[in-house]
Amino acid sequence: MPFIHIPQPWQLPERQVTSEAAFFNRRRFLRTLVGAGIAGAALPLIGCQRQSRVDAPTFDTNPLSATPNPTFSQVDRPTTNEQLAATYNNFYEFGGTKQIWQNAQALPTEDWKVEVTGLVNQPRTFDLETLQREFPLEERLYRFRCVEAWAMVVPWIGFPMNAILKAVDPKANAKFVHFTSYYDRRIMKGPTFPPSQFLPFPYTEGLRIEEMANDLAFFAVGVYGHTLPKQHGAPVRAVIPWKYGFKGAKSIVKIEFVETQPATFWNTISPGEYKFESNVDPEVSHPRWSQAKERLIGPNSEFDWEEVPTLKYNGYGEFVASLYA
Ligand code: MTE
């Protein structure tokens, strides 16, 4: 997979920040294509055009019961409308806009397996039923903050990542964990531009092992009282609420314990903009926009939003600040 290096960020005013797809420097990228002999192809450029949104779509989900975790049953903001959260997503395998929920319905989730491997004493491959039987499900209401400066509040259902740690018993030299998302280029067409073959799919993310062990780090198998709809990353995805949303890999098929910091999707594409650590921090600007405030989306549409101050660690400092002392 070619490496896309973007030395000079494309200057985008904050009001236009809509998607990571827009982060690519189109002219530089076109030059790369020309250099690679792909000149002449009529390449469509990414536009910020919106596809029409169908009101109140229904999704292929099943009810899922879980015990509400009292520590995470309230936040200082209203819960985001479910339809809104399920129709405003990032899932680059299915396109570069927020309106990918229809495309994402092509994700094949039957007979899902999650392989837990690498530097562990007890490697395991879990099917979904085993995951849900072995690890008691709880519901947690979490603030969710995207690096693009929009935010939501989402009731996830799942289990803490540290349950997996206990089950597989990492070796002493396991320092990082690497998550890999499902990828099949035949059904995941990717963004219009740049073409998928120039992006480092499969989507991957990672954490330090101490971050994974923190009680907040979560694997979600459900949301809003039912199984995850595909666009949210069915059947299992990561949710790390004190970090920017891109750290939460969707539709995970592999969890690998490794000794050195693994390469990850956005950090490979633009290391100066998407750091491996990527904790939510109002004082650390993205190179092209401030992170001091965020657009709290909702209640009814993506165009209804309230601007609020960004909270350090997304408001979860009491749980995680000690990791970075
Ligand atoms: N995981 C995969 N596999 N592919 C993606 O494009 N996008 C990330 C993250 N996980 C992404 C992904 C980003 S940028 C965000 S903000 C969140 O998913 C969005 O999650 P949501 O659509 O459920 O709100």
TrEMBL record:
Residue ranges of every copy of the Oxidoreductase molybdopterin-binding domain listed in the record: 109-266
E.C. code: 1.8.5.-
Domain of life assignment: Bacteria
Pfam families the UniProt entry points to: Oxidored_molyb (PF00174)
TM spans (from-to): none
Entry-linked InterPro entries: OxRdtase_Mopterin-bd_dom, OxRdtase_Mopterin-bd_sf
Keywords per UniProt: Oxidoreductase
Keyword Cytoplasm attributed: no
Keyword Cell division: no
EC category: oxidoreductase
One function term, GO molecular function aspect: oxidoreductase activity
Protein name listed in UniProt: Protein-methionine-sulfoxide reductase catalytic subunit MsrP
Organism lineage string: Bacteria, Bacillati, Cyanobacteriota, Cyanophyceae, Leptolyngbyales
Gene name of this polypeptide: msrP
